[in-house]
Amino acid sequence: MKILFYIIKGLLAILPVIILIWIINIVYNFITNIIDSIFSITYGNLTSTIIVCVLMIVSLFSLGLIVEKNKEAIFIKITELIIGKIPLISSVYSTLKEVINLFSGKGADSYLGVVYVHIGEYKTMGFVTKELEDSYWVFVPTTPNPTSGFLLNVKKDSVEKSNLSVADGFKKLVSLGLK
Fold it and tell me: Which residues of 108-136 are buried (b: 16+ CB within 10 A; e: fewer)?
């Protein structure tokens, strides 16, 4: 039985590395397929390859400029509307979008700060979404998926303010308190 115990311990120790390599492999294969499809179209013609690469860069730059100038870009809204109709994909997309917005600094604006809510002798981390006269509305996310959780209306004396930024608070949450 000790042998099985050590095998499981060894597997659990190396599992994060295996998952990381697996994710890197998926991303690498995805990018490789895109590049292969571009170069198979322009195979043997340097001018065509350069034109395709320049058009991709200009297109991405234009898209970024449009999104920055007009936050409500119509093609993004239409795409989100279509994706929102697909059952499983919509939840994955919304989760990814929220996490990306949060870590890019866009999602942090909706939170007023990181606090610890006292629940009995324990405390849990939450994010203040609104401040009232004698209480806070605090979103207490679940971990490691910070896009789900629950909303509490908490008296101000049941809350301990934190010196963490919102981004650091979410990093702590996603890393299960390790960072």
Answer: beebebbbbbeeeeeeebbbbeeeeeebb
Listed residue (176, 168, 174, 173) closest to 105, CA to CA: 168
Q: Could you give the CA distance from residue 5 to residue 11 in angstroms, rounded to a whole number?
A: 10
- 38 by Cβ neighbours in 10 Å (0-12 / 13-18 / 19+) ranks as middle
pLDDT of residue 24: 78
d(C-alpha 49, C-alpha 56), whole Å: 11
Query: Which tokens sit at 51?
Result: 């034109």
Helix axes 87-103, 74-84, angle to 10 degrees: 130
Q: pTM score, two decimals?
A: 0.45
Q: What are phi and psi of 147, to 5 degrees?
A: -90, -5
| Structure token pair of residue 65 | 């400029």
Q: What is the pLDDT of residues 20-65, one digit of tens each?
A: 678 778 878 887 787 777 767 666 677 777 777 788 888 888 877 7
Instruction: Give, in degrees to the nearest 5, the angle at Cα 75 between 70 and 77.
Output: 80
pLDDT digits (tens, 9 = 90+) for 12-31: 667 666 776 787 788 788 87
